[in-house]
Amino acid sequence: PAFGLFIFTIARDPLRIIILIAGAFFWLVSLLLSSLIWFIAVKASDPQDERLQKGLLIFGVMFSVLLQEAFRFLYYKLLRKAIEGLVALSEDGCSPISIQQMAYVAGVGFGLMSGAFSMINLLADALGPGTVGIHGDSQLYFLTSAFMTMVLIFLHTFWGIIFFHGCEHRRWWEIAAVIIMHLTVSGLSFCNPLYVGSLVPSYLLMAAAAAWAYLLSGGSAQNLRRFLLCKC
């Protein structure tokens, strides 16, 4: 899905490509910092204490989510400054790209890098050792991981639109909603290998976030209703 979003909506505009790459870089830096904190915490703790290690894993996931959203906010501030510079340099006093378009492209950048790392981890598991499901575990691991990667890519795109809108209009509850949804989706991963318990709520949240982002982007509630009811 990220490849399709990139090809059809971003690839022809050099400015959008720059914003996407910068967004992916911001997400990568947030992951690097959160991984470093988690690695230090694990090395400083007792590796034999399984309960402690599980607690550190939960802490690492939640801390990573909060750090990603903090970097999303920093990226918004950077893009806001960039818009002011573009307006100052333009002949007609208008920015060549709106904040809504920036929000979308930045969200795709976050989702693209998130999906890339998810696929890297998945391919690393595919190298072995052993065969998935050989000891009675679910054989749907790779399939569900692919679906989860797809939902995260779309969610980051929608979260970017909602988050930037909240920052732009000082609606802090929209920012809080994005953080809560992100924490929820990440926390649902601990339901695995009960994949239904993680995939179904994640896709429901994605549908809600998609509708919300559509309305914030200027979409009509009437058109959304007609789409959901499959009316032309």
From TrEMBL:
UniProt superkingdom: Eukaryota
Transmembrane feature ranges: 17-41, 56-75, 102-120, 140-163, 175-196, 202-221
Transmembrane helix is among the record's keywords: yes
One example of a Gene Ontology biological process annotation: protein processing
Topology within the bilayer: Multi-pass membrane protein
Chief location category: membrane
GO CC terms in record: gamma-secretase complex
Keyword Nucleotidyltransferase: no
Keywords: Membrane, Notch signaling pathway, Transmembrane, Transmembrane helix
Localization, UniProt: Membrane
Family, as annotated: Belongs to the APH-1 family.
Functional description taken from the UniProt entry: Potential subunit of the gamma-secretase complex, an endoprotease complex that catalyzes the intramembrane cleavage of integral proteins such as Notch receptors.
Quaternary assembly: Component of the gamma-secretase complex.
Protein's UniProt name: Gamma-secretase subunit APH-1
Origin species: Chloropsis hardwickii
